[in-house]
Amino acid sequence: MNKFFNSKLFDFIVISARFLSCITFLSYGWGKLNGGQFGLNSDELNTPIKDLSLFKIDWYLFDHQPFKFFIGGAQILCSFLLLFNRTVIIGALFFLVIISNIIIIDETIMPETLKLAFRYRLLFYIFLCLLILYHHRNRFLPALNILKAKYQPIFKHKIWIYLLIPIGAICLELFIPCVKIIYFLITDFQGTVEALSDFSKKILSNM
């Protein structure tokens, strides 16, 4: 068995798997970008939501931007990463993440007839992806050794510093609202002051 996994035949199978995965994701991604995937027809759009299946409802939601562009672009990017030897490992890991999400979505929204067909097809793609990673294990596995290595933090802090972490987290959470308030004070000082005053009154009245 080990001889097979180190043979030219297995290498050819892996190259074919990379090509198939690339073409599949390229077609999926392009279909999303050019409007060939997602969306409802006019009759379905005029149907009350309670009469639509979960699949059709999600198909409508997925047809909106930037979701459709992001997913389509990610699949196209992944397909090109799988093509090149330097990026094949990143592409395979990327592929696993995307295809796993697709499986979960399909298992959630698809009718049973479609679910069964796509389940085995997508699981087969995962199997091919694992073959790709196994074939490149000499490059891939050393990276996993980082997880087993003992981690040395860049800086060592005293224990009382760690007790301040929740306060630091709260300060970071408040950073963006503070920046927004400063921005609105600069662009609309009077309106911002009035809005802050009204907000403060509502808070105090509920206390």
From TrEMBL:
InterPro entries from the entry? DoxX (IPR032808)
**Which controlled-vocabulary keywords does the entry list?**
Membrane, Transmembrane, Transmembrane helix
GO cellular-component term (any): membrane
Grouped into one coarse class, the protein's main location is membrane
Q: Which residues cross the membrane?
A: 12-31, 88-105, 117-134, 159-186
Q: Where in the cell is it found?
A: Membrane
The UniProt entry lists membrane topology as: Multi-pass membrane protein
Source organism superkingdom: Bacteria
Which named protein is this? DoxX family protein
Which source organism does the UniProt entry give? Empedobacter brevis NBRC 14943 = ATCC 43319
